[in-house]
Amino acid sequence: MSKTEQDTPIISKLADGCLEITLNRPDRLNSFNVAMHEAMAKAIETAKSDDVRSVLITGAGRGFCAGQDLTDRVFSEGEMPDLGETLDAYYNPLIKNIRALKKPVICAVNGVAAGAGANIALACDIVLAGKSAKFIQAFCKIGLVPDSGGTYMLPKLIGEARAKALSLLGTPVMADQAKQWGMIWDVIDDDKLMVEAREMAYFLATQPTIGLGLSKMAIQAAGDHELAEHLEIEKQSQREAGRSDDYRIGVKAFFAKQKPVFTGK
Ligand code: T3D
User: What pTM value is reported for the model?
Assistant: First the structure.
């Protein structure tokens, strides 16, 4: 890591259509302060560009992210914080942006993911975790409520019973358990996590981006509609995908028995 990178709370690198975003405050387990939020917002803006066809989010050092930096939350007697302001300004836009990116977002959880850190990971499309990683809804330990989409995603992913127990007890969930419950996609040996996560992210950056983005959006919208209404959404999505260059490229390559070279258009 260069000297400049050491001093920057978010490292973002674009190569071959894949934007790799590294949370980089390892001494504080990559917890979020304002500077890191602002740098993250910039990285997510970059992710919206058509040049970016997949995104990989990970953390530097031994942790993924410990949520809010609590050193910024030591209040003087009588001071009454409005934590809704931070959610409005930073956490909520981040989660909405990750979900709205019309391209795959992979999260490589390289260590502990606590508080908002856990829920930022769960907002991503494909979550890979290192064997030693764990997920902690740490909010209850400090009198708060799971945010960053935690109370929305957890019941969807693992059901209400587990979501409530994790949120009320703050029990850590190890990577293997998270996979078994369907909270994440896969568990990888710690020393192979980044190799496999990059392999997946770079592969996805070569795939038909429009179709993948539409698939992501349709799946995310599924819970909001009746079947008939949702079939309409699929129809519209298929219409749009069918007009993409990559659809034509895919069909042509199929009949030519060749590997398709998708363009993301
Ligand atoms: O406030 C708002 O704006 C509302 C939004 C809230 C969103 C939230 O995320 S609230 C929840 C905040 N996060 C937490 O409550 C988690 C706090 N951290 C922990 O519980 C533990 O650190 C972990 C379970 C994550 C990891 O434990 P362990 O034993 O592996 O590491 P450690 O020794 O506790 O932490 C290592 C260092 O990181 C340590 O610093 P030191 O003693 O070496 O100088 C520790 O203080 C620091 N650290 C860890 N988490 C945070 C942190 N520093 C600031 N803020 C943190 N969240």
Answer: 0.97
